[in-house]
From TrEMBL:
Keywords, comma-separated and alphabetical: Isomerase
SUPFAM superfamilies in the cross-refs: Thioredoxin-like
Species lineage: Bacteria, Pseudomonadati, Pseudomonadota, Alphaproteobacteria, Sphingomonadales
Active site per the UniProt annotation: S15
Protein name, as recorded: 2-hydroxychromene-2-carboxylate isomerase
Pfam families reported for this sequence: DSBA
Signal peptide: none
GO MF entry, a single one: glutathione transferase activity
KW Membrane (keyword) present: no
Gene3D superfamilies xref list: Glutaredoxin (3.40.30.10)
Superkingdom to which the source organism belongs: Bacteria
Length: 215
């Protein structure tokens, strides 16, 4: 029986931050039993009324620079694909068809952010699926059960309060973003740190001035 703490890792392979977090989770023993769960980032953003950082032109360049710096600082080889962001739904369905196996998640992330492979290309996706032991990739990822599984993953993530990727869920607590890994370590070492009166009060703060669109 595993003595590790169960944790859900919600991700979309379009996210370089998800790639970085996955690499650290795979290489650092935090005592977690990670269950990777592919979700569609665009659907999360649409549900919560958000936009991705790459959709804001000046933020896009800053985001990519930050990711490259974080990768270099953490000794992670990162090579962005020529086009980003890209349509990731087919890559997500490939992961679903492969039961989001750890080796499949490794391979998809490596294909995108280490090798710069274009997974929007059907032939390239077919090759990657074949490398992972899946035949008839095009037909499999177009199947109703695969599409429904991805939809169900995403809807369940939204119901849990997931609004972006990567998000690590440990028990009832969510940790969003690569930069929360130190927070995760402290949480695992001393959960009571996150149960103080001041921590509890944060969820009850009044919302001040809402942003309103100009009429």
């Amino acid at each position: 029986m595993s003595t590790k703490t169960p944790a859900n890792f919600y991700f979309d392979p379009v996210s370089p931050f998800a790639f970085l977090m996955w690499k650290r989770l795979r290489e650092d023993d935090l005592g977690l039993e990670i269950r990777p769960i592919p979700v569609l980032l665009g659907a999360l953003l649409n549900h919560w009324g958000l936009i991705g950082p790459a959709e804001v032109p000046p933020k896009r360049a800053q985001t990519y620079r930050m990711c490259q710096w974080l990768a270099d600082r953490n000794g992670i080889a990162l090579h962005f694909p020529d086009t980003h962001p890209f349509r990731s739904v087919e890559a997500l369905r490939l992961l679903i068809a492969l039961d989001a196996r750890t080796d499949a998640v490794d391979a998809v992330f490596e294909a995108v952010f280490a090798k710069g492979r274009d997974l929007t290309d059907g032939a390239e996706l077919e090759r990657l699926g074949g490398e992972l032991g899946l035949s008839n990739v095009h037909d499999r990822i177009a199947s109703a059960d695969v599409k429904e599984a991805l939809r169900a993953n995403t809807e369940a993530a939204i119901a849990r309060g997931v609004f972006g990727v990567p998000t690590l869920a440990i028990g009832e607590d969510l940790f969003w973003g690569f930069d929360t890994l130190d927070m995760v370590r402290d949480y695992l070492a001393d959960p009571k740190m996150f149960q103080t009166a001041e921590m509890q009060r944060l969820g009850t703060l009044d919302y001040g001035v809402p942003r309103r669109a100009e009429s």
